[in-house]
Amino acid sequence: MKKTTIVLLLVLALIVTGCSKTDNRDTDNSKNNLQELSIGIANDPEGLDPHRTASTTTFQVTNNIYDTLLGVDTKGNLKPRLAKDWHVSDDGLTYTLELQENVFFHNGREMTAEDVKFSLERLTDDQSPKANDYKGIKEIRVESPATLVIELSTADITFPSLLAYPWAAIVPAEAVDTLKNKPIGTGPYILKEWIPQQHLVLEKNKDYFLGEATLDKVTIKTLPVSASQLTSLESGTVDVIYDVTGEMAKVIATKEDLKLINAPQYMVQVLALNNAHPALKDVRVRQAISMAIDKETIILGANDGFGDVIGSHMPSISPYYVDTTSVLKHDVERAKELLKEAGYENGLNLKLTLPKQYKLHVDSGQIIADQLSKIGINAEIEVIEWASWIKDVYTERKYEMTVVGHTGRLDPDAFLNRYASDASGNYFNYQNSHVEDLLVQGIQERDEAKRKEIYKEIQNILAEQVPAVYLQTTYSLMAANKKVQNLNIYPIDVFELREITIE
Amino acid sequence: MLRKNYNIWIGLGLITFMGSLSLISLFYTPFDPHAMHMDARFLKPSATFLLGTDQFGRDILSRIMAGGRIAFLISLLAVIFGSLVGFLLGSIAGLGKGFIGQIIMRFIDGLMAFPGILLALMLVTILGRGQHSVVIAIGVFNIPIFARLVYGLILGNENKLYLKAAESFGASKIYILFKHMVPAILPRFMTQFSSSVGVAILTESSLSFLGLGVQPPNPSWGIMLSEASQYIMTNYYLPIVPGLAIMLTVLGFNLLGDGINDMLVKRGSEL
Q1: Disulfide-capable partner of A85 in A98, A148, A230, A339 (CB 3.0 to 4.6 Å)?
Q2: Claim: this prediction has a pTM higher than 0.90
Q3: ipTM of the prediction greater than 0.85, yes or no
Q4: Chain B CB contacts of A18 below 8 Å
């Protein structure tokens, strides 16, 4: 009988845990005049050294402690930050950066071009996870305390955007050994306290060179379970939560004192196809798969409608985006015909590998499998760990179909250069020499209008040849208390706490 | 005496109910358990969808039925496999004694030392995901339970006079095993079998819940529970159905096991 009782209790516990409320409200907020804000995040930062991590949650915190040379606005346009101006030489090989003067690190020392040189070199050393993105840098020279020259080995018009990502942060040389736990930057906030797995307290930097922030104190709390994030927000324990799911959004919409903030992300969700597979090698099979898929239904079913349909590998909010959604419209009958022409009228078995950690991709995959079954393709689903996905699918390319998202980059080249035959990110095994030529032209063309034409052509080719089926650009969803203002969503997954105000 | 043994009747009733739902699913389910109805997501129970629909608009009743089929099939196969191997190892060790018996039983003790679910997790990781691996994994963690049981019962019975008598008549070990030991062991064996199936169903659900067992979109109660738990904030109703299905079935097998045990103990005392 003992086992029976345990089973009963377990089931009960499962049902009850989701419903419990936290009742420890923060009541001291309004008692003094200090402007305070509390934010709930899903994952604890893994250390606050921006050159030694690849974790998005970590960058969301570090971006407020450190500065980068360039910044971005909410539309993804570059703007001055530590560099007040930048020029490129006519051959596209030399970039000259004019730095802001009178900028001080949190330890009181003035920042100079030497620090910038040191930081960029540290970003490109062999311990830096992002080093590969910066391998085009040939030499960094300090011309004067406020002038820095960067020489590239090949012309690359996309280079300035690389200076705006949160990992390209400027750090003081003397503090690098302890940055992981005691971050020192030039940013608008200073780390006051960090208790791992619990919370992290930031206080404003009164001497910030772009003007001090409105909020005096920001507490970032780790709330790993999405249900507890929502209850914490409802009870007022936190004022803002990131990583809101479509399901939570529905609940938030019904609460009067809460609001939902959403905007399309710089993200492309794809059903990647292994173009080296004997059946998927045939463009007709790939087109049939694309036409069998109803993207609207996927967005509704896997993401509660928070996404834009796309037709090629470019997020819908990019200035380079071209609408290719009508190239291969959803048409089950035509898809069947194409499959028949290709010789698969009796059906086709394909494996669909999905990364377990990403509920969005796993759910999308299940809907895709259902849709493909209608044209006679039997998609056998296999859900695997992220680490195995990286190894088997992305690195070794041992897969047939998979669903995944490509995120967080500004320049169109950063999205599209994986279609070059020898690119390490070309896990589609896609080969097209014309696309390759266009990609090379793209990073050398300095005329904006001509550049747009180049990327338009690539997008059209991809939409028609379907190395992958392009599903959606998802929305970034955040929820906040109504009193929180100016909470902006940025295309590169950063948050500017400095801009936030409280009514 | 049997009439007052409520455990056995409630247990049998629950198993028959869940079992027949699963059996019927071989021929008929109200809807295709895989068919998605995107315009009918998260529906509460209604005349069309008797137990409502899930996040993809799939009929929950159909999925519970089809999931039950998978749960029963995997658990029965696994426990049959585990109990047969366990019986074999236990009887070799019990009758053979000596060196081989010692080796077998120390090996069994080693297996015993692993918590069941951990052993199953390890095996599934080695063998790869999917239903075959789950059968083998659950089967293997049942081997030591049955081997120990059979070994213990053989040792406990071997000094009985009728066995001594059979031996003195020159009966072979195999003859003694099947003619005398099996009937003596069988009742306790069946008790263990019944509760093992209950545990196996729970383990299959746990492995599928963790994503290591049955793979989506195949309906498994564990997968249904894991998917539903993500929607608990907005659709508290969703996890209750697979949760109840697991609970009732496991409860049924445990009650049946207890019932058989009670019955035997009583019969034993009357003899």
Answers
A1: A98
A2: no
A3: no
A4: 229, 232-233, 236
